[in-house]
Amino acid sequence: MGISLSTDDLQLLKSHTKSCYPEEACALLVGKGSKVNRVVVAKNIADDPRSFFEIDPTIRISLEKELRDCEDSIIGVFHSHPDGRDHPSERDEEMIIERNFVWVIAATNGSTYFELSAFEPQANKGFKEVSITRKI
Ligand SMILES: [Zn+2]
């Protein structure tokens, strides 16, 4: 199905990733269907945030409350791999809980170079890469 992101949302993910470097940055993607309408950056509360990410659950809970009467919902999760690849790690595969979430992963080379890919968890195991469309 893929995902579509606005230029502003891409810019926000980029600046958040840079400001978290060398730690992993994370965010929740809010929207409808495959269209992201809002990026909500979140605190990474993992014990070792340079290698892992864990989204602050209080942010997710308050966001879900806020979205209760909206057409939009949380449709995806974003995190970065500082000096890593723009592909899910083994640990990411173990963390798939929400099968309907799209995973957007940013790879950085230092705090500058930035590449973004999107993946959908598969029914049995692993991820499948999907396209990212940029909307104006
Ligand atoms: Zn990861």
What can you see in these coordinates?
With 136 residues, this protein is an alpha/beta fold. The chain is 21% helix and 39% strand. The protein is built from three helices and eight strands. The chain has helices at residues 7-20, 57-66, 90-94, and strands spanning 3-6, 26-32, 35-42, 73-81, 102-109, 113-121, 127-130, 132-135. The longest helix has 14 residues, at 7-20. It is globular. Bound molecules: zinc ion. Zinc ion (ZN) binds at residues 79, 81, 89, 92.
Summarize the structure.
The chain contains three helices and eight strands; from the N terminus they run E-H-E-E-H-E-H-E-E-E-E. The protein is α/β, with parallel strands linked by helices.
Strand order of the largest sheet: 3-2-4-5-6-7
Average predicted confidence as pLDDT: 92
The number of helical elements comes to 3
Biggest sheet descriptor: 6 strands, mixed
Note the topology.
Blueprint: E1 3-6, H1 7-20, E2 26-32, E3 35-42, H2 57-66, E4 73-81, H3 90-94, E5 102-109, E6 113-121, E7 127-130, E8 132-135
Parallel strand pairs: 1-8, 4-5
Antiparallel strand pairs: 2-3, 2-4, 5-6, 6-7
The chain binds zinc ion (ZN).
Keywords:
binds zinc ion; globular; 136 residues; two-stranded parallel ribbon; alpha/beta; 8 strands
